[in-house]
Write a structure and sequence with these properties.
The chain is α/β, with parallel strands linked by helices and 347 residues long. The chain has helices at 2-11, 64-83, 101-108, 133-151, 166-177, 194-209, 242-255, 277-288, and strands at 24-31, 36-43, 56-61, 89-92, 154-164, 184-188, 215-222, 226-228, 239-241, 261-268, 312-313, 332-333.
């Protein structure tokens, strides 16, 4: 029996190690003014070390523990597929250390304490907290952004914000409080219903005091996000009309005629509040970091029955040695049976 137990212990696998994201690190930043600290996830783009003088746009996104791996993977996949996304530094904004995600985001992403009156705390001994968005925003502006820009080669003129649900609400709060914090805003399913549609009222207040709003903003929402509200009183309506709220908010912004504002709204048919995130993130990445885009693909000519590959635009001409003959005048690579396109022209 003893020999059997020893054999089983020796055969047992070693404790599993977490799989880290390539080129990533966790940056802990204390927030003594808030009485807590935060751990953020930073993912550097491929080739970051090759050009020490280059500065990169930075994508700041909420809910880092849930989204960091997804965002990093999508950046890699979309770039590898030939879409040419511009390289960027990813910054996942973490929850407060020791807090659950639900507790942290309810408190830090909402602008007033008027949250769900039936909410139950998922942290025993601590009451539900709402309404500290402005304190958290100031911490990001005064502490987090300067600290990260000293440590990483972030272009401060090209900060991009991405948030979903309460994270989208928080993005609207930043947009109407200190829009210059970010150049681009990707706001997915923002909770504009919060506190009796407070942000629609705040938009009107902003318009009375300002003649411009310098930002590029993309709103995205699922077409199936207007649903019955199970708790309509006292801070809600009979319906969570999220699609209608977004359209009303965007229409109000467009109606102001702000010369420096670019705003767009997209409704994704068939998507609900959860499923919308992945396709919306892809659209947001391609909108904010378009890069070079996919090369044009042309079909094989009808008069070339042996053509097995599409014709691809030739890469930009390079300097040729003296005496090298000129290439064809068509500017296209002609596919021939059995010959793949040159590596430089593959998508």
């Amino acid at each position: 029996m003893i020999r059997l137990l020893v054999a089983l212990l020796l055969a047992a696998p070693a404790a599993a190690e977490p799989w880290p994201l390539p080129r990533s690190e966790v940056v802990a930043i204390p927030a003594p003014e808030l009485g807590r600290s935060y751990s953020h996830i930073v993912v550097l783009p491929p080739g970051h070390e090759a050009d020490p003088a280059r500065r990169y746009p930075a994508l700041f996104f909420t809910d880092a523990p849930q989204s960091a791996a997804l965002l990093a993977g999508m950046m890699t996949r979309l770039s590898a597929g030939g879409r040419g996304l511009e390289p960027a530094i990813l910054v996942g904004l973490g929850y407060a250390d020791g807090d659950t995600g639900q507790y942290s985001r309810r408190r830090d992403y909402t602008p007033t304490p008027h949250g769900d009156i039936d909410a139950v705390s998922d942290m025993p001994g601590r009451p539900v907290a709402y309404g500290e968005a402005e304190a958290y925003r100031r911490h990001l502006e005064r502490v987090v952004l300067p600290a990260l820009e000293r440590r990483f080669r972030i272009d401060p003129g090209r900060r991009i914000y991405l948030g979903h649900s309460y994270g989208g609400l928080f993005g609207v709060h930043i947009l109407l409080t200190e829009p210059a914090m970010f150049s681009h805003y990707i706001l997915i399913s923002p909770s504009l219903w919060y506190d009796r549609k407070l942000m629609l009222a705040r938009e009107r207040g902003y318009a009375t005091l300002h003649r411009d709003l310098r930002a590029k903003v993309l709103f995205l929402i699922g077409g199936e996000e207007t649903i019955p509200d199970p708790d309509p009183e006292p801070f809600g309506n009979a319906m969570n009309a999220m699609v209608e709220d977004q359209e009303a908010f965007v229409a109000a912004l467009k109606g102001r005629g702000y010369p420096s504002l670019t705003v767009e709204s997209r409704v994704l048919p068939g998507e609900d509040h959860g499923s919308v995130y992945v396709p919306a993130v892809r659209m947001g990445l391609e909108w904010a970091l378009p890069g070079t885009g996919r090369p044009e693909r042309l079909p094989c000519p009808k008069d070339q029955p042996n053509c097995r590959y599409p014709r691809w635009p030739k890469p930009p001409p390079q300097e040729k040695p003296v005496g090298m003959p000129e290439s064809g005048a068509t500017g296209l690579w002609e596919g021939r049976e059995g010959d793949p396109p040159p590596a430089s022209t593959l998508p």
